[in-house]
Target: UDP-glucose 6-dehydrogenase
Amino acid sequence: MAPVSRITVIGTGYLGATHAACMAELGYEVLGVDVDPDKAAMLQAGTLPFYEPGLEDLLAPHLASGRLRFTTSAEEAAAFGDVHFLCVGTPQRKGEFAADTSYLDAAVDALAPHLDRPCLVVGKSTVPVGTAARLATRIAERAPVGEAAELAWNPEFLREGHAIGDTLHPDRLVVGVRSETAEATLREVYAPLIAEGVPFLVTDFATSELVKVSANAFLSTKISFINAMAEVCEAAGADVTQLSQALSYDPRIGGQFLNAGLGFGGGCLPKDIRAFMARAGELGVDQALTFLREVDAINMRRRFKMVDLARDACGGGFLGRRVAVLGAAFKPESDDIRDSPALNVAAQVQLQGGDVTVYDPKAVDNARKMYPGLAYADSAFGAAAGAHVVLHLTEWREFREIDPAALGEVVAERRVVDGRNALDADRWRAAGWTYRALGRP
Ligand code: UGA
Model:
């Protein structure tokens, strides 16, 4: 293959849009491709269809210089790119645990018939192991250039809210390849990062696919481990935040992903552990991953426990009680509400008769679309006005910085339940609040 100068990025969600902007930042000419004309037009105009800190600022100069463009045409993409990154979603199938890889199939089916010169197609989506091998055949069968349209797999580990930093300064690069040409091409693409010392691991297809899902399985397990300890702490009268802090000093354990609270949500961890279990079942090794059922169950139990604490704070029932919910996004620095623990709790409280008002710094518009029956406010104080209990469910900095004395002036009763163990309990108590939290006395 000739030296890489032009890259396409197919699928422009938070992964693809970030990857496109970061590839432009590394100096490549980049064409972003999306089947949704509205999304492509928005991005071309420099507006993000979602919130990601710093990304609009990164897009702007590259759009202005023309180094980065967006289109809906797969034909244009095939003609443009030396390397084509596949960044489309692999959501959970409706009513099943397995991942839906049909968007990948569709992307390949749109692109491959136009691939008439040697190129590298690079999958970044999170997939069931075996998908890359299947897609490699699919591409070679459909491309006029045949097997000279090669596939590689290069899983993405970025976190929403930290997408740019995680892309430009990743912990590692993992590439699953079948040829030295594919490896050399990816070494060239990522040369600026490799030069900075980012580890570059070369594997087969299956291992590269598994690295991603096992990383997410491990992170989910770590969160559910500490949340299981929170359950024990609640029964024993112990404090999970102190327990977690003490554990974190052991370098073999470490403190990251050891924050007990409402647990994990979002578009990745929950669906990835379920898809991983489904795939293990297909491979005949379901027993290897049955522990992930428990990880999932512990995670979901935290949401019910949160509702129980909120009900207790309301005197045993929600009827006639006003409940302020601070947070709708699945985590701070994001407007993503997919499988959001906060909204799940808000909806349960409302179902049980609570009069719920939600506020989130970025996610209210998305929340309103998915949960139109909930009431929304445009500030934390607006949500809390007249409330009998305040539920802190997404740990935005804005909520940690609230003056509890001032908030106490607008509520009906000074009761707060901290679902994220992120508020300063002493400060809230000093301001006259009854403070409760998950995993603490
Ligand atoms: C996750 C992984 O962290 C990324 O490495 C991966 O690339 C990404 O999924 C993906 O597969 O695309 P993300 O879903 O953006 O990233 O968010 P995380 O920061 O991992 O948080 C996930 C959830 O866990 C959030 O709901 C968060 O509140 C929760 N969490 C996290 C805890 O409850 N406790 C913790 O200690 C840490």
